[in-house]
Amino acid sequence: MNEPNVNYVEGRSCDGCTMCCKLLQIRALDKPRSKWCTHCDIGVGCKIYDERPSECRDFHCGFLINANFGEHWKPTNSKLVIALADDANQLTVFVDPDRPEAWRKEPFYSDIKNWARVAAKNNRRVVVSIGYEVIAVTPDGETSLGQVSDDQMIIERRKRGAGGTGVEQIVVNRSDPILEAMRILKDPEAAKNASPEQLAEAKHMVDSWLAQQDE
Ligand code: SF4
Ligand code: SF4
Known about the structure:
Blueprint: H1 20-23, E1 40-41, E2 45-46, H2 54-58, H3 62-65, H4 75-78, E3 80-84, E4 90-95, H5 108-121, E5 125-130, E6 133-138, E7 141-147, E8 152-161, E9 164-173, H6 178-186, H7 188-193, H8 196-214
Helix pairs in contact: 6-8
One iron/sulfur cluster binds next to loops.
């Protein structure tokens, strides 16, 4: 729960809602996903509001900040919390494990599928998280990615097959050096600042890593 230090959609606020205090992980408090924070006065607010960790202060759910998410997404009613990644590449729908099928009900499911269609065209992704169980939603269907922690991230890889080009999701530890190698190759600024040796090493690392994924 939060105070608006970003622009909230007119008429929307955290008042009466504490859903993110259950569904999200808060590292500073050692609070896992899907468990109520011990500091939460459920449905009322935070009992340590002035001292709450920065993770709580900095979180603003999608419903609060984006009018494209309709009123039905209000977390207190939907039991679903939309989180937008800082780099805008991923939209996560956190689902209350006490209602694990909530995201499959309408109109939520149609919304999620529509977002997946738009995301796919823009090299972005939509995932559903029920606790740490994560499901990638694509225009073609759904893929269970198993348990994905906050120390991990999902990257996508386009693959050509007999049926055309498909997208494969791969779960990677955030500390894996492969991410830096990929950044050097993908980010024009990083590539410009890298030496020829660094570029060659990054390319070798990524090629080897991709070959391993195919084994
Ligand atoms: S889920 Fe959204 S509306 Fe509800 S308390 Fe958290 S940030 Fe506020
Ligand atoms: S510290 Fe407060 S704002 Fe943060 S999760 Fe706990 S109850 Fe919610």
